[in-house]
């Protein structure tokens, strides 16, 4: 039985890479990272001690073996026209061509690009930055795209993710990517719709007008995530991903008037927001109750329990 001691090498130590690194280190795996620049530690306020366990390597294949798993979390770029640039991701994957270990791709990539890339599993990331480490330890979704012809056995942490996620999907990398874009587009379209509707009720020039819009919207949507009047959709992912998805499909000759409208509506709302800074900002989380370290620990269970206890004691004994 695999007892969870594979070596993990994270490639691209940003938001996603660090969340995965800290979560897997917390679960008892030896974790290393490779990045082309000095990382800016995203979760140091909460997980400063855990960072000490995740060591940088200067040669990407330094820890290579048949028991090594590479998690690629290099960022894509999307230009003003909505074209996705995955050259950095391609470069990172090419550097693993000779690796004996397995490759898990976590970056967000348009379905049509995936066939041109080399990896074993595509598992798009669905985390929210505010609870990213906890969500990486116990992901809400486990969406697994297996590359055709890949015969690699699962790493041990897949079993925990597969067993404990609230939604599980096994399919092709392209299907996995469509689920990721479906999720982001659905989130964005709800935000844009509610804001456009709210603006139709009244222009939010002051707090009374804002309250007027919220009164109607909140009655109907009961203050659910992505369905609250406020700021336009922003952040690292929604604008970038929805724009890239729209542009790609338009280039393939597919009409997407609803998504075009959503994009336009959000741009209009961004202008409104610039003039009215009192528009509230809503952060979304999964509806599952907070995934605390303790819940996550229990879920990780059998394979890593001894390591976890040791790490938990050392790392968190002085934290509340
Ligand atoms: N941030 C989120 O909340 C989030 C959520 C879900 C999915 N994603 C997706 O995950 C991917 C990564 O996002 P992120 O927010 O972590 O990006 P990021 O910009 O914070 O981190 C990417 C890291 O990759 C590094 N990098 C670039 N080229 C490299 C190379 N050749 N080798 C090694 N490292 C390299 C960069 O220096 C950077 O540190 C993106 O595709 C993003 O859309 C992000």
Question: What features would you describe in this structure?
Answer:
The protein is 45% helix and 12% strand. It has helices spanning 15-26, 44-51, 87-94, 111-114, 132-137, 156-164, 173-201, 207-221, 238-251, 257-275, 293-300, 305-316; strands at residues 7-11, 31-34, 55-56, 68-72, 77-78, 84-85, 102-105, 121-122, 141-146, 167-171. A hairpin with a 5-residue loop joins strand 5 (77-78) and strand 6 (84-85). The two termini are 35 Å apart. The longest helix is centred in the middle third of the chain and has 29 residues, at 173-201. The chain contains 12 helices and 10 strands. The strands form 2 sheets. It has an 8-stranded mixed beta sheet with strand order 3-2-1-4-7-8-9-10, sandwiched between helices. Strands 5-6 form a two-stranded antiparallel ribbon. Helix 7 (173-201) packs across helix 9 and helix 7 (173-201) crosses helix 10 (257-275). The chain has 320 residues and is an alpha/beta fold. The radius of gyration is 21 Å and the shape is globular. It has 2 domains: 7-171 and 289-316, 3-Layer(aba) Sandwich (Rossmann fold), CATH 3.40.50; 180-275, N-(1-d-carboxylethyl)-l-norvaline Dehydrogenase, domain 2 (Orthogonal Bundle).
């Amino acid at each position: 039985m695999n007892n969870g001691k594979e070596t993990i090498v994270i490639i691209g130590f940003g938001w996603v890479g660090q969340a995965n690194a800290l979560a897997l280190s917390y679960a008892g795996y030896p974790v290393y990272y490779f990045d082309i620049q000095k990382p800016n530690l995203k979760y140091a306020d909460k997980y400063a001690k855990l960072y000490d366990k995740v060591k940088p390597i200067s040669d990407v294949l330094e820890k290579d073996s048949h028991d090594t798993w590479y998690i690629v979390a290099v960022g894509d770029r999307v230009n003003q026209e909505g074209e996705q640039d995955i050259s950095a991701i391609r470069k990172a994957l090419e550097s693993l061509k000779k690796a004996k270990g397995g490759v898990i791709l976590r970056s967000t990539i348009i379905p049509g690009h995936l066939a041109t890339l080399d990896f074993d599993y595509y598992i798009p990331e669905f985390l929210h930055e505010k609870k990213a480490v906890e969500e990486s330890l116990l992901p809400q979704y486990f969406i697994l795209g297996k590359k055709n012809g890949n015969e690699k056995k699962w790493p041990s942490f897949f079993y925990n993710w597969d067993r404990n996620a609230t939604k599980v999907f096994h399919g092709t990398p392209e299907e996995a990517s469509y689920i990721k874009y479906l999720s982001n587009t659905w989130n964005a379209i709800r935000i844009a719709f509610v804001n456009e509707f709210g603006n139709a009720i009244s222009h939010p020039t002051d707090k009374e007008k804002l309250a007027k819009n919220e009164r109607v919207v909140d009655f109907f949507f009961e203050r659910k995530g992505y369905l609250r009047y406020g700021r336009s959709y922003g952040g690292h992912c929604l604008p970038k991903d929805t724009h890239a998805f729209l542009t790609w499909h338009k280039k393939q000759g597919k009409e997407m008037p609803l998504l075009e409208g959503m994009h336009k509506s959000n741009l209009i709302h961004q202008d409104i927001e610039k003039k009215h800074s009192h528009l509230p900002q809503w952060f979304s989380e999964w509806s599952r109750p907070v995934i605390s370290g303790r819940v996550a620990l229990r879920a990780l269970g059998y394979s890593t329990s001894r390591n976890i206890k040791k790490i938990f004691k050392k790392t968190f004994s002085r934290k509340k």
